[in-house]
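testing teh design pipeline on a random one, pls ignore if ur not involved
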C-alpha cells in the first residue's frame, strides 16, 4: 500500500501540463462593416469581393522600423446566403434532406396541400397545419436574415469554392437550388458534404441555429439587430498563440485569396494603457471613414496573472 502511494505521488509530481500562454481578442465591428459578396458574383454597393480574406496583424515599432506579424485570418459574411448552392437542410431532423432552403416552403406546400395557412383545406390534419405554418414562418425568417438588415458574421477563412452548378436537374453534379426532387436533394447533400469535409474552414450558415453553421466556424457577429426578434447582437472573439506584449499598433488588412502581398488596409489603431490587465484599441478605417470602425479588447498573456482585485 505504501509503495503504491509513493509511486502515485512520484507520477503526479513528474507530470506537468503547461497552461495557455497566448491571448484572447474580443472585437466589436461597427454595423456599417461590409460583408463579402456571394461567391462568383460582383460585389453590390456596400459589399467587398467574395474572393478575399481579412488578416489581423500586430505591429511593433523599433525606432521607425515596423514589423508585422499575423495573428488571425477571418472573413465576414451574411449569416445566410440565399445564392449559395449549399444553403441546405443537412441535419438529422431534416424533413427533406439536401433541399435548398429557398425551396423548403414550396415543397412543404406540395406535401401538405396547404397553400394558405389561414385557410387550410377541409380535412387537413393538425400535423399538416402545424408543418405548413412553421414552413411559412421559416420563409419569413429567412427573408429577414438574408435581407439588407440581416446579420453579418465573422467566420473562418477559406479560399475554397463549391463545384460548378449544373444547368438543370438532369445532370450528375451539383443541382441548381430550384431542383427540389428527392434525387436532386440527395445528390446536393452528398456533394456539399464532400466539399465541407475537404474544406473545414469554408463557411456555410444556416437559419436553424445561427451560432452553429453547417460548415466552418462562427467567431461572432458584427454589431446589429437580429431582425427576427429584434434583439441587439454583436461581438466576435478568438484566441491567438502570441502573448502580445510590447505591441505598438494593430491593423486589419483585406487581401485577395492566393495573392502574396499584404493587401489593403481596412482598420488600424493603437492600444491604450491596460486597465486591469486589458488593452483597448479603437480601430479606424482609412478607406471607409465614418462608416466602418471597431473596438478591440485584448486579454494578453493569459499564462500570467498579475492583476489583483
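output:
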Amino acid at each position: 500500500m505504501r509503495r503504491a502511494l509513493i509511486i502515485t505521488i512520484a507520477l503526479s509530481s513528474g507530470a506537468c501540463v503547461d497552461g495557455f500562454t497566448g491571448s484572447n481578442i474580443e472585437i466589436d465591428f461597427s454595423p456599417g462593416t461590409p460583408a463579402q459578396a456571394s461567391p462568383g458574383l460582383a460585389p453590390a454597393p456596400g459589399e467587398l469581393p467574395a474572393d478575399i480574406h481579412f488578416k489581423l496583424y500586430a505591429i511593433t515599432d523599433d525606432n521607425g522600423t515596423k514589423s508585422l506579424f499575423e495573428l488571425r485570418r477571418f472573413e465576414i459574411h451574411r449569416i445566410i446566403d440565399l445564392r449559395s448552392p449549399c444553403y441546405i437542410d443537412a441535419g438529422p431532423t431534416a424533413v427533406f434532406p439536401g433541399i435548398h432552403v429557398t425551396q423548403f416552403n414550396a415543397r412543404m406546400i406540395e406535401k401538405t396541400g396547404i397553400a394558405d395557412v389561414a385557410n387550410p383545406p377541409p380535412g387537413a390534419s393538425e400535423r399538416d397545419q402545424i408543418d405548413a405554418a412553421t414552413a411559412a414562418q421559416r420563409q419569413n425568417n429567412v427573408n429577414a436574415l438574408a435581407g439588407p438588415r440581416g446579420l453579418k458574421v465573422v467566420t473562418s477563412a477559406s479560399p475554397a469554392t463549391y463545384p460548378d452548378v449544373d444547368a438543370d436537374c438532369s445532370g450528375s453534379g451539383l443541382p441548381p437550388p430550384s431542383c427540389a426532387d428527392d434525387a436532386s436533394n440527395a445528390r446536393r447533400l452528398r456533394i456539399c458534404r464532400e466539399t465541407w469535409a475537404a474544406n473545414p474552414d469554408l463557411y456555410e450558415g444556416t437559419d436553424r441555429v445561427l451560432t452553429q453553421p453547417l460548415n466552418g466556424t462562427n467567431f461572432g457577429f458584427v454589431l446589429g439587430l437580429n431582425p427576427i426578434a429584434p434583439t441587439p447582437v454583436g461581438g466576435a472573439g478568438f484566441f491567438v498563440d502570441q502573448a502580445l506584449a510590447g505591441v505598438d499598433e494593430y491593423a486589419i488588412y483585406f487581401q485577395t485569396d492566393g495573392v502574396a502581398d499584404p493587401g489593403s488596409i481596412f482598420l488600424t489603431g493603437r492600444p491604450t494603457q491596460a486597465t486591469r490587465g486589458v488593452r483597448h484599441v479603437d480601430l479606424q478605417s482609412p478607406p471607409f471613414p465614418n462608416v466602418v470602425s471597431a473596438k478591440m479588447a485584448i486579454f494578453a498573456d493569459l499564462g500570467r496573472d498579475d492583476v489583483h482585485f
